[in-house]
Design goal:
Layout (H helix, E strand, L loop, with lengths): L2 H7 L4 H30 L7 H30 L1 H19 L5 H29 L5 H13 L1 H11 L2 H15 L10 H9 L15 H25 L2 H7 L8 H25 L3 H20 L6 H14 L3 H10 L6 H14 L1 H14 L2 H22 L14
Length: 411
């Protein structure tokens, strides 16, 4: 039995370890910007009355980079291979991270957030694709669970580093961690499924993003995968990031710290990633695990909007519970990966989560619009009900993929 055979069966292999650590650094950087937004903007001379406006501008630059990167790296992952794209994206956002620590102008900051977003877009999708393809169908769920569960802890480290050091050092740490990760590259091997498709199915088009829209059944599957993930970023963008505002409306006793709210939520996310991933293995069903997660999400969302007069500690605990519920992120991305053939798998697995993140734009606009018609609480409830409802319908329509053999191509 060679090393590759062992790796296919054992979730604690070098491919999973590198993908998990890569996602760890990815999440560290993704969350770090939100944590150091105010001190970093003040540090480069942005006036206090422009912090919100300029912060949104930088976040949008990062999001544009992620949306473009999601398509670019997904296509390249199917055309050139999972491994080279995985490590190029790690190198790209690591260098961008370090460079972020040297910025002195808003223009420099914006350009580097775009580049960082470009690199961050490929990490999870390519990593999950590679792990799913090098492991057996019976154990790949364990591998993808480890990737997500370990990776999400990066948000906690980001909060701690930013709390202990200044914002420039926090960026240096993130970039340094990414470059250290590249040293493990020599031990990682390419997906055998990709190599087989590349050599034996030369006539099959790989990474054809537009082919997702030329077949009705394929397009529906793609759309359903995206809809399943929408509630995750509704929770993050509305219930967590805007928790200081909701806290005031709910008359929470004490001041809610935005950074602490994010950290506690991501603690829950890490726990939820392991729990939901393991459930999908024990139940031998992705759909059953996702259904349980959605029911918990519905219960905890109702609890969130019913927390009138709660203490800050109790409110933070609710954010942890919401994190546990939306910890289905790993199972969701794995499910998307398992829905499509080898010649489109990286394209789908990379673009789907980035389109889900991009959905924060219409979600936030919907809340802001409904707030003018009703109030913030009612707006949040309506948008949440729509997001969770669409996800449940999409889950019902999507096929079960736990036992699915992934060694095939899309026509």
């Amino acid at each position: 039995m060679n090393t590759r055979d062992i790796a296919v069966k054992n979730p604690f292999n070098i491919v999973v370890i590198v993908a998990a650590l890569g996602y760890f650094v990815d999440i560290y950087d993704l969350i770090l910007f939100g944590i150091v937004r105010v001190p970093s903007l003040k540090g480069i001379g942005v006036p206090v009355d422009q912090l919100l406006e300029k912060g949104i501008y930088l976040l949008n630059m990062q999001m544009i980079g992620m949306l473009l990167g999601g398509i670019l790296w997904g296509v390249m992952g199917d055309k050139k291979g999972r491994l080279p794209v995985l490590f190029f994206t790690i190198a790209l956002y690591s260098v961008a991270n370090i460079a972020n620590g040297f910025v002195t102008t808003l223009e420099q900051y914006a350009a580097l957030r775009f580049i960082a977003g470009l690199g961050l877009a490929g990490e999870l999708g390519i990593g999950i694709t590679l792990v799913a393809e090098v492991m057996s169908k019976e154990t790949r769920g364990y591998g993808t669970t480890l990737v997500s569960g370990v990776g999400i802890v990066g948000a906690v480290l980001g909060f701690l580093v930013a709390d202990l050091f200044n914002w420039r050092v926090a960026y240096f740490v993130g970039g340094g961690l990414g470059l250290l990760l590249l040293l493990l590259r020599a031990s990682v091997f390419e997906s055998g499924m990709f190599e087989k498709t590349k050599k034996e199915y030369m006539h099959v088009k790989r990474g054809n993003f537009l082919s997702l829209f030329t077949n009705h059944a394929r397009l529906l599957k793609y759309f359903l995968c995206i809809m399943i993930g929408i509630p995750t970023w509704y929770v993050v963008a509305i219930l967590v990031i805007q928790s200081p505002e909701f806290g005031k409306v709910l008359h929470i006793k004490g001041n809610i710290d935005g950074g602490a709210a994010v950290m506690w939520h991501y603690v829950g996310l890490s726990i939820g990633s392991f729990v939901t991933g393991l459930l999908s293995q024990w139940l031998r069903s992705r759909k059953k695990a996702l259904f349980i997660a959605f029911i918990l999400l519905l219960i905890f969302t109702i609890l969130y909007f019913s927390s009138y007069g709660f203490s800050v500690v109790a409110f933070y605990f609710i954010l942890v519970l919401l994190g546990i519920a939306v910890g289905y992120w790993a199972v969701f991305v794995t499910t998307a990966s398992e829905q499509f053939g080898t010649n489109l798998r990286a394209t789908v697995t990379t673009t789907v989560p980035n389109f889900v993140k991009g959905a924060t734009v219409p979600i936030t606009f919907a809340v802001l619009y409904l707030k003018t018609k009703f109030d913030l609480l009612t707006a949040g409830i309506i948008v949440g009900a729509v997001c969770i409802g669409l996800a449940l319908i999409s889950l019902y329509l999507l096929e079960e993929t736990y036992h699915k053999d992934l060694d095939y191509n899309e026509e």
